[in-house]
TrEMBL record, chains A, B:
InterPro entries reported in the protein's UniProt record: NMN_biosyn, NUDIX_hydrolase-like_dom_sf, WH-like_DNA-bd_sf, WH_DNA-bd_sf, WHD_NrtR
SUPFAM superfamilies documented for this protein: Nudix (SSF55811), Winged helix' DNA-binding domain (SSF46785)
Organism (species): Candidatus Phycosocius bacilliformis
Protein name (Swiss-Prot/TrEMBL): NrtR DNA-binding winged helix domain-containing protein
Superkingdom to which the source organism belongs: Bacteria
Region of interest: Disordered: 304-326
One Pfam family it belongs to: WHD_NrtR
Residue span, NrtR DNA-binding winged helix domain: 245-303
Top-level taxonomy: Bacteria, Pseudomonadati, Pseudomonadota, Alphaproteobacteria, Caulobacterales
Length: 326, 326
DNA sequence: AACACTAATGCTCAATATGAGTATTAGTGT
DNA sequence: ACACTAATACTCATATTGAGCATTAGTGTT
């Protein structure tokens, strides 16, 4: 073997589960620094990446994954994971770390069940992505102000407008990564400062970081927030063309419950009656005949996903966005 | 450094261009065995994968790439690239090759211009994907027959039905990879036999290969046909949500020309009047005022892509499929 | 037992979008 | 002047979508 620097494949997993409170992601148990579960790929022991991901997530959290999908492979120099964190198989100095991101859906947990590991609401890291309440809208508005101050070229201005749904454009909930990357470029997220500081120290980092904390969301280790953004975007987009929500929903659910789930994932409000209409027409769900009467209103029919929704190639949900809040 | 087997990152690029004859992909100049241009990633010299891809494609073919996008990272043991082909940076035995696939659009070439490198119609490798003419439909029908003979579990049967648009399902032009993987699993493409032969030799390969050649399409080195399938699927899907066709079309085009391009890429026929209607309404194109009179019929207006179509986040084309052939 | 309250479910209606044609029209070549 | 060809213009029925009002079946209260 030569003495040439090696390439090390780091695998990161965004494990998503949905509780009543909202979408939650599994964090690695690192002390202090927040990051996703990750491990390095063993070229001898692992036959495929996917198996490796399943392995180390189970090993680290005791949780067996259901749906798993590859997201993106990040190889940028300067944004890579710190080698020290790479675990037992981690390499030496001068090695290049390439990280392959995965998204996994952990299914819904039942009543009393408690999942292993540390779970966190993903909007902690992306407060501006939750447009269901005023808070998120305000955060977004603040960031837009800062971004507009930063944008000088017309391309930058147009990117801001498209990403944040300005000037007649509509907010695309799946453009999570575009928005995050803009914030990174503009130096409005902590990671940007951190990565720049590696090369040239000079700016008053402490002061800036304090300002950032407010609307820029919580930072993550390495490029993990970027991977999380990719996962959120992929999930939000995929809901529309594959019946993937059902992997996050309980076995039996009410249509309102399903709607809540979609709303929480996509961070938007939907029109209730129209949501129900498209769902019933889609053939993806079927009534169980059993009612659910625990909301204080009229009891709701419990539905299950239909067999046809399990066929590979089955379509997703069309989401009727609601303009007005009711 | 340890003596642990290394990981080598192979980069493969599907470089697509469209000529009058159809979509063409750039092949690497290997003697005999057909494959995509590829190179190995240099952990020291290359800052990002994308730059590395641009570099080696230019080096190998003299062609500067426009649009470049990452596809997927393949790491399965047993389907990886032969190490001998990996170029100057290629490693020794026992190393694990991980291949990162990219798609790049090379733009339209003008009249007399000749592109460097060897270009081939991509339907050579996927004859069943061209449903514009009888030939492709027949090939698909043949393969479906073989697949149905192979499918035993109900899951396999349903996958075949969904992928090939059987039993009320509709043919999804972007499911190229699903179809190829089914054919691979069923042993109906040459690569499957080749890869199996590595482990256990035993089947009469020569005889089988001869039968395959007919409808299974031309084989490629390593897992390159899988990467090509991924690229075709991604491109076909992306046409619908990003104005990406314009990166393959000439600067000025007629609507019929643009339609031909889309048809050839997606392998389907479109309804002419409706295509024109959605295009004009979309605001993605604008008339130049100049006419084009070389078809023998009424002269056509030449269009260009509009400035708004260049904004990041601009939508794609909605494709009105034509049932009947006219 | 009647009443208010709440959420679920049902139904309507206008505005678009889509699929499938038929009808003109402006060039080219004879 | 005439046939031919492809481009462009319209038409029409049928979904699909966005928005909203109306009714209903439970729960808890007076």
């Amino acid at each position: 073997m030569s003495t040439r620097p090696r390439v090390i494949i780091g695998l990161s997993a965004v494990v998503v589960a949905a509780s009543e409170k909202g979408p939650e992601v599994l964090l690695s148990g690192g002390a202090g620094a927040t990051g996703l579960p990750f491990g390095s790929f063993d070229p001898v022991g692992h036959r495929t990446f996917e198996l490796a991901v399943r392995d180390f997530v189970t090993a680290q959290t005791g949780y067996a994954l259901g749906y798993v999908e590859q997201l993106y492979t990040f190889g940028d120099k300067g944004r890579e994971a710190p080698l020290a964190d790479m675990g037992p198989a981690g390499g030496g100095d001068g090695d290049r770390v390439v990280s392959v991101g995965y998204i996994a859906l952990a299914g819904s947990i039942g009543e009393g069940q408690r999942r292993a590991g540390i779970w966190a609401d993903w909007y902690r890291f992306f407060p501006w992505e939750d447009r269901r309440r005023e808070n998120g809208l305000e955060t977004a508005a603040n960031l837009v102000r800062d971004l507009q101050a930063w944008a000088t070229t017309s391309d930058q201005k147009s990117r801001v407008a498209m990403a944040f749904g300005l000037a007649g454009q509509i907010w695309q909930d799946s453009q999570v990564l575009d928005r995050y990357e803009l914030l990174y470029e503009a130096g409005l997220v902590t990671e940007a400062l951190r990565d720049r500081a590696r090369d040239h120290v000079g700016l008053n980092q402490a002061a800036q970081a304090a300002t950032l904390r407010a609307s820029g969301g919580e930072a993550m280790v390495s490029d993990h927030r970027r991977i999380l953004a990719t996962a959120m975007g992929r999930l939000r987009a995929k809901i529309r063309y594959r019946p993937i929500v059902f992997d996050l929903a309980p076995d039996r659910f009410t249509l309102s419950g399903l709607q809540d789930l979609v709303e929480v994932l996509c961070g938007v409000r939907l029109h209730k009656q129209n949501f129900r209409r498209t769902l019933e027409r889609s053939g993806l769900v079927e009534p169980t005949g059993v009612m659910h009467a625990e909301t204080g209103g009229r009891p709701a029919m419990l539905f299950t996903r239909s067999p046809s929704s399990r066929q590979s190639g089955a379509p997703g949900l069309t989401l009727p966005l609601a303009r007005r809040q009711d």
